[in-house]
Design goal:
α3 packs parallel to α11. The protein is elongated. It is an alpha/beta fold and 338 residues long. Bound molecules: phosphoenolpyruvate (PEP) and manganese (II) ion. Phosphoenolpyruvate binds next to loops.
Length: 338
Amino acid sequence: MFIAMKPHATQAEFDAVVEKVRALGLTPHPISGTERRVVAVVGNTGTVDPDDFGMLPGVAEALRVSQPFKLVSREVKEEGTIIDVGGVQIGGRAITVMAGPCSVESREQILETARAVKAAGASILRGGAWKPRTSPYEFQGLREEGLKLLALAREETGLKIVTEVMSTDTVPVVAEYADILQVGARNMQNYPLLERLGQVKKPVMLKRALSGTIKEWLMAAEYIVAKGNPNVMLCERGIRTFETATRNTLDINAIPVLKSLTHLPVIVDPSHGIGIRKHVAAIARAGIAAGADGIMVEVHPNPEKALSDGHQSLAIPEFAELMREVRVIALAIERPVM
Ligand code: PEP
Ligand code: MN
């Protein structure tokens, strides 16, 4: 259920609504927008009559939320969420570009990539320190050393950093260094991890599971928001289909569908989405054209030598060309690239 206040409702009227929700043994989630203030009510609201709230002073309307996801739904919050990552805004008019290697491999590799993607116009550096690898014998990431190298690259370039957190026990260390904590596809429904990230004061980027439906994905985002962290963005990274010509099938449909179902920002990862270097730019362009708020692209100074995902990583000149193309597409839909 959600209770929308009138535009000029007083603080006392708002507080009275919150108090009444608590008195019923339910959890109020105040949501402030520029248009109106809303109190989302979570818990077993089955026996509560929305009209009991609709009559209160300062209340415009009280309605049940028809979707199973509540706090992340557009019904509850009409305006898109803008996540501020130390001055980089994600989810506003500007398109955000995140770029960097699949894995942080060395000081030279991450610094060279960071300088290059910054020069080409990216605002966020990606790089895995803990890597979810299909084989236990493959490179597993530099772990905390990788986080330190990312922090060094941030210091030198001013880029913000996004990196994956794979388990609840590493949440504190990853949160200490990262500006955005990435939940990988394999962990989309790791509920203890999602709940733990709900208690973190940093934004979370939730990637779609290999076989996750849009509804399951939004319910996963709901776990994080319900635990107290409203700064969640979603990342479409391709799903598993019958097709074997590409690594995954980027679900372009998900972009407009998500934008209508949820107020959370949507990012597209064309690298994992198609998994073939020469096609990454086409899918990045398509993602922007379809309405994504940003892209995350794998870039490596020497893709042939990459310790993970080299086959889908762009060399630096290829990334610079992709940025040029993305700017043209963004301009066509009247969005700047930040
Ligand atoms: C990654 O971003 O490098 C990654 C492992 O992505 P995903 O979880 O989408 O496979
Ligand atoms: Mn990768």
